[in-house]
Amino acid sequence: MTRGLAAVIASAALLLALAGCGEKKDTTQPSAAKQSLTLMLDYLPNPDHVGLYDALATGQFARAGLDVKVQTPSDPAAPLKLLEAGQVDLAISYEPELLIARDKGEQLVSVAAVSQVPLTTLMSLKKGVRAPAQLRGGRVGTAGIPYQSAYLTTILAHAGVPRDAVKETNVGFDLVPAMLSKKVDATLGAYWNVEGVQLRLAGKRPRIIRMEQVGVPTYDELVVVARKDTLANRGDEVRAFVQALARGYAAARADPQAATDALVRAAPDLDRRFALASVKASLPAFFPADASKPWGWQDPAAWQAYERWMFTNNLIGVMPNAGATAYTNEFLAGQGS
User: Fold this and answer.
1) N or C: which end of the chain has fewer CB within 10 A?
2) How is the chain split into domains, by residue range?
3) 231: which residues sit within 8 A by CB, 6+ positions away?
4) In terms of CATH architecture, what is 120-213?
5) Dihedral sign from CA coordinates of 173, 176, 181, 184
6) What's residue 24's pLDDT?
7) Domain 6-117+221-312 and domain 120-213 have a common topology
8) Degrees (nearest 5) of the Cα angle 30, 42, 240?
9) Mind listing the pLDDT tens digit for each residue in 184-232?
10) What predicted TM-score, i.e. pTM, was given to this entire model?
11) 139 pairs with which residues across the strands?
């Protein structure tokens, strides 16, 4: 798990409680009997999933001939394992997690990017910490995930700070509490669109430094993943799912309040004020910067650059891991057959 989304639950305490995609017409025609697809989320329902819940609420999947069932994992590390085991048809996960799984031999492929950019940040509430160079002699909390440690190493090198000049502490997913209690000077792992929004709503002024601004290659934080055999045997259903999901995110962009309402109805524990603020902050991340590309677009050069970074930092052992096999754009609107 790459995120501190346990803070979505904790936000209640923190906050006193969270238009078309340029697509061509989908040529996949719905059948009379809807095809069942089971999707495993990366974690609990949250604003990153707003397009999914809009699509469910407005019948986008049903009109595409699909009966989509959504599951949440009991263990945040489980989605790709359950997917590989054939217990679910699709999963939302993270580009780095997918590359690591593939490095272990799992036959998994990303079919769409939900988040086009990193959501992970270097975040601080400490006065005077506005750039990585100001962490010299300080302490950074992480969730104990290996590539977060590698992010920190890259960021410090980019800033000209010796790695041993900054201490790293595993705070689990208590990233916000660790900052509020001043246990750490900064955290690496909090999301700009989740914890960053929560803190601002709570009257705090977090300094947020995004990964792609300080030496870490950009990557797709959240992706939709399928097994290779599913793509071979149920490609039409995957295509119908991805393009209905795209319509859900387009609808969320057109009417964030209605989409947030659908999300909160599905996940009533979410604080609506937070959820709407997070959805509005997140929407640009859900669409390619190049408006000519369809929702879900995965940039080949970005995938290859991030893979090289993972290999250089000993997070994967083999290249090429990505190439044209870890991801595909063929199921997006206007792509493929």
Assistant:
1) C
2) 6-117+221-312, 120-213
3) 109, 111, 238, 328, 331
4) 3-Layer(aba) Sandwich (3.40)
5) positive
6) 39
7) yes
8) 15
9) 999 999 999 999 999 999 999 999 999 999 999 999 999 999 999 999 9
10) 0.89
11) 167
Would you give the distance in Å from CA 126 to the centre of its chain? 27
pLDDT tens digits, 14-51? 433 333 333 334 444 444 689 999 999 998 999 999 99
Q: What is the DSSP string of 258-305?
A: HHHHHHHHH-TTS-HHHHHHHHHHHGGGGS-SSTTSPTT---HHHHHH
For the record, the structure tokens of 218 come out as 């950009």
Q: Residue written as tokens 């085991």?
A: 85
Say how many Å lie between the first and final Cα of the chain, rounded: 34
Task: Please write the tens of the pLDDT for every residue from 64-88.
Answer: 999 999 999 988 789 999 999 999 9
CATH of domain 6-117+221-312: 3.40.190.10
Contact 72, 267 (CB under 8 A): no
Confidence of residue 13 (pLDDT cuts 50, 70, 90): very low
